[in-house]
Amino acid sequence: MTSMHTNTSDESLWRLFSAVLKRDLLLSFRKKSDLVNPLIFFLMVATLFPLGVSPQPAVLSEIAPGIVWVAALLATLLSLDSLFRSDYEDGTLEQVILSPQPLMVVCFSKVVGHWMTTGLPLTLMSPLIGMMLFLPAQGMLGLMSSLLVGTFTLSLIGAIGAGLTVGLKRGGVLISLVVLPLYIPVLIFGTGVVEAAAMGVPYDGFLAIMGAMLALGCVLAPVAISAAVKISVSG
Fold it and tell me: How far apart are CA 119 and CA 214, in angstroms?
């Protein structure tokens, strides 16, 4: 009897997760700007760096890991303000808090949706940026691996800031102040993976640390996000 109840509970949580994820993806695809803007911003930042630093291939290939990661971080940050904003404005977020459905599942589902429409496209686009910045071909796999893991961690951390500032009119600036210090470890290890891969050095250690940060984020971030949303909406 207990196992039957557990299976039913797991199925209901999975249905809730799937329903929220499907809804968020449909809304994102209807608003093409939400999908395109981070990619354009990513491309613009990566394109402007050579103009401000040096167009020499030797220089660019050396600083390419940092450029790509900073551009990806800023592009992810750009899209965070809209994570809970529309649901807050139409009252959906308040209804979710009042409903018996677990808010943590809803929040985690929204983070997954945000990563699928922001972090995943950035990861798929990163080889093009790497080629533009003369990143060695052997570094491409490390670049995509680090972004695949790291952008999900960025979405989890950023969602905490988005939850805290959803009730404020100008939450975008405050999200940056809250989230950027927490992004630094991800940026350091993500850049380390790409640099090691570009030099032909094993990068498993860096990637394992990033995986550990992601696992910790998946466990702790939904709790923090749901608490932040409750504080922001009720306050």
Answer: 14
Cα 172 from Cα 186, distance rounded (Å): 20
Give SS3 for 91: coil
**Domain of 172, in residue numbers:** 2-234
Distance CA 49, CA 46 (A): 6
- How far does CA 156 lie from the centroid of its chain? 6
> Residues 21-52: pLDDT tens digits?
999 899 888 877 778 888 999 999 888 888 88
3-state secondary structure 180-216: HHHHHHHHHHHHHHHHHHHCCCCCHHHHHHHHHHHHH
pLDDT for residue 155: 95
pTM above 0.85, yes or no: yes
Closest CA to 151 of 209, 112, 205: 112
CB crowding 70-98: b at 16 or more within 10 Å, else e: bbbbbbbbbbbbbbbbebbeeeebeebee
Number of domains in the chain: 1
